[in-house]
Automatic annotation (TrEMBL):
Keywords (A to Z) from UniProt: Membrane, Repeat, Transmembrane, Transmembrane helix
Biased composition (Basic and acidic residues): 8-33
Ig-like domain: residues covered: 75-170, 177-270, 281-371, 378-469
Native species: Rhipicephalus sanguineus (Brown dog tick)
Protein name, as recorded: Sidestep protein
All residue ranges annotated as the Fibronectin type-III domain in the record: 483-572
One Gene Ontology biological process: cell differentiation
Amino acid sequence: MPGVPEGGDSRDGTKASAADNDRDEARWDPFRDARTDRSLPMIAPYPNLRSLVGRALSRLFGAQWLGSTVPPKRPVIMDENGTKIDNITRPYLEGEDLTLTCDVYDGQPEPVVTWWRGSELLQQALSRTAGGHPRATLFRLRLTRADYQARLTCRATNSNITQPVATTIVVNMHLKPVSVEIKGPRGPLSAELPAQVICQVNGSRPEALVRWFLGPYQLNDTETHVISPNTTLGVLNFVPGDRDHGARLRCLASNSAIGGAQGSTSAPLEDSWILDVHYKPLVQLRFGSGLSPSNIHEGIDIYFECSVRSNPPVSEVSWTFDGRDLHTDGSRGVIVSNQSLALRSVNRTNSGFYACHAANSEGEAESNRLRLRVLHSPVCQSGHRQHSHSVAKHDTVEVECDVEADPSNVTFSWTFHQAHRTAPLSPNASFSTPPGAPLRSVLRYTPRSDADYGTLYCRARNAVGDSLEPCIFQIHPVGPPVTPYNCSVEEVTSEGVHVVCQRSGAGQQQTFLLELQDGQSTPIVTNFTSGQPSFRVHSLRPATRYQMALYGINANGRSEPVHLTVFTLPVGRGLISKADAEWSLGSTTLWAAALSAVAAFLIVFIALTLGKFRRKIHFNRGRAHFQMLEEGYDRIRL
């Protein structure tokens, strides 16, 4: 058979070639009839006589007798442990030594045993078994990946005219990965948004074990997909956070079948990625160093520091005070400088909650809200420093004194003032602090004679000190109400106005009266009454000047009036707000003064011009003309 060496060992141990076997077949056969070229029938008492004779003649003539060939049995292949291998070896590792033994039994003449890999004859060591049978041992040192699924054949032959017997096995191996790569673009990730990363592993058999680590921590939300016998994909699903920025994401690939195998020393392959995580700014607000937040008094300087951590860097930092935007204001001692805020010589109006805000391409974030508590002595509550009460003799009025103070542990004191003298409260007065209202004192006061009418002073004290100015309450006998104050025109249209005042005489029962007349008539056009000092007047003439008088009225009469002048708008004009109305009202005096000044200038100018160029005109005619100009001036002024 081509490519397969055949023949057997001769007596002297030399191999016979195929040509030698052909010559042996042509030698004389004592049992063959030369005339017919047929073997003669042999009659003998021993059935193996032919074989015995052939073997004897073979020794004599140096040739084998054709009729004596007995094929060997199928070769038996065993591993280094003596375990029989039928089709495939146990899994070997790369670098491990392979030792295979092939034993051949029976066969006449004695067979020749060889190892083959395809058509390649392999080196082998020949020996004999304990029973004297031929054995061929194959030594394969340090298996490589190229040996995976190699087909190795052990062949036995003892004749050149018969097919050799053979056993073929397949080399099985566990292969470690040869490459690992994190696939896809490695661009920025957004914090708190789901992300998916894919890692491709090549060369592992069986499939690779893929593990993911972020820093020192293993991630478990993973999937593994085998897309080909040679390729495994590891898929990681995770949500990065701001603290993952700059962390190393690692994909580790190994063969789980190799990890604990004897002789395995290889470490897992890995690929890594330094994460670029984009996140909204993380903002922290704190007081400047050296400040004690619980011991801040009026008059000292305060500093805030805004600490920002972000990726990408912030594009803007802003500040708020009690939810309102805060900007540099030198008149108030406010200095904003990017990530720092300074308040010079603070006072109680600076108390409140401060925050800083930072923004980048990922969004905007607000810091913690830091409360600034400025300790201060008591002051009268805003807008309540002076009050007026009208009280009849022997009637009792409750006077409420409200202050602002920090700390709020306040003690109150009251005094009575009349005609530039100060006196203690009379026995018919008492004050107390209502439960749950530590910053309020309520005085029950009962005037019994004319000497009990005057001014009440309310003072307060806390740990910081005494109030600098008292809260003042005027006590009047019952009479006409006090004149309303702070009157203003809130809105003006072509047909109406809205007028608002503040009431005086807290606690008094009173109503309010508005009298209206236009600029062309003396009689009152109309009047209105209201329980509140607020009037909405409609059905007025457009582009008309109106005079207004407002009163407070009670059972004892009415107060002194408050006078206002207002101009309704021409038809087709919209609404004028309070600011515009204040400008249009301005003052009748301002408008009159302006018009008078212009008219006077024109009169003087015209008079001088006429005097210069018309001195020859009769004096009486000049006087008449001058009177005409004066009348024009009067009309302009009106």
